[in-house]
Amino acid sequence: MTIQIIKTTPFDDQKPGTSGLRKSVKHFKKPDYLQTFVQAIFNTLDTIQGSTLILGGDGRYFNREAIQIILRMAAAAGFGRVIVGQGGILSTPAASNLIRQYQALGGIILSASHNAGGPEGDFGIKFNGANGGPAPESMTEAMFAAAKQIHEYHIVPLNPIPVDKLGTYQLSGMQVEVVDSVSAYLALMETLFDFDKIAALLTSDHFKMRFDAMHAVTGPYGHRILEERLGAPVDTVIQGEPLADFGGGHPDPNQTHAHELMAMLYARNSDIDFGAASDGDGDRNMILGKRFFVTPSDSLAILAANARLIPGYKEGIAGIARSMPTSQAPDRVAAKLGIPCFETPTGWKFFGNLLDAGKITLCGEESFGTGSDHVREKDGLWAVLFWLNLLAEKQDSVENIVRKHWAEYGRNYYSRHDYEAIDMQDANALVDALQAQLSGLAGKSFGALSVRAADNFTYTDPVDGSVSKNQGIRILFTDGSRIIFRLSGTGTQGATLRVYLEKYEADVSKHDQDVQDALADLLAIVQTVARIEHFTGREAADVVT
Ligand code: G16
């Protein structure tokens, strides 16, 4: 086998963020940029020789070129076999499943998730380990350190693999298997959910749904699973063709970016009962009823409360975990079920140890991510199928299910305000100023609200004892309300400030308020404490979810 050794200069900006390395496509196309990061991944792995690697991406611009480069580098590194999704396509949860199924050393997933795509958009690459989950911080730190030392990378000569055609190919002694992107994932879903009951619901005259694939990776999954396998009408999946630039859209399943779906569900005469959307790489989900939005935090709480109705979870769940900024609605369910609820930093990687140790079965994040121990990533279509199974069991509307949940547990009013692409220095100055106030905030009152504690969240992993500091500034009030400030770890332009607001309301007669009205006093405190306009010049958030 000929291995070409290409001399290169190290990069010092290849620090993975919340979920892998994300940069603009232009940045990734710099000579040797992608190659250096791939070499950095390989240099941090010990047991490559003869092992299996899973490879796929969300189909965004540059996916195809990157797949061929990584295949050539995997052959040079000594992998015995690479399993590639057909056309280079694998949703993130499907890739996680294949890693586990093939007992692979890990997988490389090419995606910038919900970030826009196309030549002017973003690209990303992340490594998932043998458990199918995102590489832990210790490993991403090692990759970052390795990238700063790389002066050469190893690659075999160009020999394009026809990734559109299923089959097994040879690349300089390494086997490349091109597999159907959907089949194994569909088989896994069939083990968890009652497909007969869901099919009966989807084919009944009384129920209509729309699934918005946002021209991203879940198009083929939605068509195959919802329409072909479960028999939903052919117009169920909208924007189902994956496009390299997501049709110019922003593949982020929220009320702002999934506007086609929102318009369908919120039309005055809408006849659609259930709406759902997923993101670029298929791990996020948004759940809608008719003119009704389910917050991701409530969704996790409701799935947990009803898990025993679902075949895959009928024995009950061991525990729940939520990211710190996610609302405390799941905590109330865990308390009632008598199971633990863990609070982790933002980032799916923090759930991995808890899932592997069997401490939790369900987990989720406010950022439209929900999942379980069936894989080690959040899973958009899994959440949609879970909701469909629940609707089929309960024979009730989304809105009624949520309202009954609130009546039983109380309602956690919740909203996130994002200030995007602000100047990095301004953002840091704002955070520093907040940090400086923290010690003096406890005991202070703002109108009717009194601060119980204020800190910067530190997480100690209960499984391996690792400590993650500075995971978000929290202002905690005596009535359970919270304000949280974080800088996003997934943006590619400047900084994105996220402000999370939460207020608990037990009284069912007060469950009909407008969310922003219910949170208005907290937002006023945000302006006093964080002085966002002063630091950033921004009067209002860019995206409110
Ligand atoms: C990633 C992570 C999630 C995280 C989200 C937002 O999601 O996997 O765990 O909640 O980013 O992170 P941030 O607030 O730092 O932007 P995805 O869907 O982008 O991979």
TrEMBL record:
NCBIfam families in UniProt: PRK07564.1-1
Keyword terms of this UniProt record: Carbohydrate metabolism, Glucose metabolism, Isomerase, Magnesium, Metal-binding, Phosphoprotein
InterPro entries per record: A-D-PHexomutase_a/b/a-I, A-D-PHexomutase_a/b/a-I/II/III, A-D-PHexomutase_a/b/a-II, A-D-PHexomutase_a/b/a-III, A-D-PHexomutase_C_sf, Alpha-D-phosphohexomutase_SF, PGM
Catalytic activity from the UniProt record: alpha-D-glucose 1-phosphate = alpha-D-glucose 6-phosphate
Entry annotated with the keyword Cytoplasm: no
Top-rank taxon, per record: Bacteria
Listed name of the protein: phosphoglucomutase (alpha-D-glucose-1,6-bisphosphate-dependent)
Cofactor: Mg(2+)
Pfam families in the record: PGM1_C_vert_fung, PGM_PMM_I, PGM_PMM_II, PGM_PMM_III
EC number, as in UniProt: 5.4.2.2
One GO MF term attached to the UniProt entry: phosphoglucomutase activity
Domain Alpha-D-phosphohexomutase alpha/beta/alpha, residue spans: 14-153, 185-288, 297-409
Species, as recorded: Thiothrix fructosivorans
GO terms for cellular component: cytosol
Protein family according to the UniProt entry: Belongs to the phosphohexose mutase family.
Catalytic class of the enzyme: isomerase
GO biological process, one term: glucose metabolic process
